[in-house]
Specification:
The protein is of the alpha/beta class. The protein has helices at 18-27, 32-50, 58-73, 116-123, 166-173, 190-196, 230-240, 258-263, 284-299, 315-330, 349-360, 363-376, 382-403, 428-433, 439-444, 473-485; strands spanning 53-56, 85-89, 127-132, 179-184, 199-202, 222-227, 270-274, 303-307, 408-412, 447-455, 461-468. The protein has a domain at 9-262: Amidase signature (AS) domain (Amidase signature (AS) enzymes). The chain is globular, with a radius of gyration of 21 Å. Bound molecules: glutamine. The site of glutamine (GLN) has 13 residues, from loops.
Amino acid sequence: MPSEAKPAESFVEKPKTLAELREGIISGRTKAVDLAAGYYDRIARKNPRLNAYLSLTKERALSQAARVDALAAKGEPLGVLAGIPVGIKDVLVMKGAPATAGSKILEGYRPPYDATVVSRLEAAGAVLLGKLNCDEFAMGSSNENSAYGPVRNPIDTERVPGGSSGGSAAAVAANMAVATLGSDTGGSIRQPASFCGVVGVLPTYGRVSRYGLIAFASSLDRVGPFASNVRDAATMLGVIAGHDSHDATSSEAPVPDYAAESDKPAAGLRIGIPAEYFGEGLDPEVGAGIERGIAALKAAGCTVKPVSLPHTRYAVPTYYLIATAEASANLARFDGVRYGYRSPASENLAAMYRHSRDEGFGAEVKRRILLGTYALSAGYYDAYYLKAQQVRRLLAEEFLRAFAEVDAIVTPTAPTPAFKLGEKTGDPLAMYLADIFTVTASLAGICGITVPCGTTRDGLPVGMQVLARHMNESAAFRVARAVEAAKI
Ligand code: GLN
């Protein structure tokens, strides 16, 4: 171990629950400004090694904390997140704060408005600490594609935290925030949650506004929370979910009290186990962890039965066609004119576009723009993009058939635990293939959650993915609570 490396344990620290912290603030025992200052101290100590935060929003955080304290002192009613320190993935915009999306091309960009989820968190009393590192434009599974350096996994700093929301997962695992927001297009909340041993929620497509989310693939992108326990994650979702007139894809369905829903016992729920998620390529220790989780669900009174999802094997190519096609369109707006980086050495406008994009985008983003542009080009559209949309439909239908028989489906979140930094960077295809268990729900639009489900012999977290049908987050929360309570 290199001499500057600290023992891994010093980075992992379980935060108090959100409800406990809020109770302290309402009663006046804890001052929100002191809590925020404490979190900034921890960030100052841990972030140099972990690289989870890219920028801090201290002034805004401390004035919000002071506002919460003033309300508490007057005995005014406080929001459900009163004084709670929260971190925001750097693909979501906060007015006046840097928003890089992990890319050099957005260097220096200061958005003029707040994402809807940011406004909703603050309206509920949250104290927003800063912006969290991620893979460039959320493209990746290890955080190694960030232009600002990789995030390290707090459990073992020689390993990746997962991606693309690696900073959001690591910040919660290291208690550099009580909860965070991430985005998930093909697994970017669920997989890093699994690698870092925290809870991550993929809300149903349309459940949470994407206004102010820097787009990757618009038919797949979702925003969701990370927390150290299921109830806190449910509380966070309750705050950010709901219709937003700024996002035409956001649903008008009423928002349940997710925290209360998560308190309901899982007994009686029917759980489906798809054999397709337990075959070749699954690390045996991950498989064993999930088996223990399934046994715990049986013990909690759930019924368990097999379900069949035979199109799973087409999901990775389908996802990488649709996601890259949409990305190639979304990323066309970054050309050095309107946002961020502009190459200084350009003789004319065309050269300025070319150089800005060439110098501003990283290798993985360029690869995806090329793949996506190819898939959409005349003559190939029907063979690739259209075909992928048809397979997507089959995948969605097969989930719906399964959900006619079960309330939730449980699977491993990822085929392996967190891997070593640098282990997969030379082989993009191997990196893509490891997304096999998460891209299916992304394509189908259904919701899910990752909940910690034991560890390997080396102490690396195993994450269980609990999937539920559209708008049935409550079922996923109840199942995840039962797994959490079993302390596997
Ligand atoms: N790992 C997947 C990808 O690289 C998913 C990323 C995401 O969900 N944003 O596309």
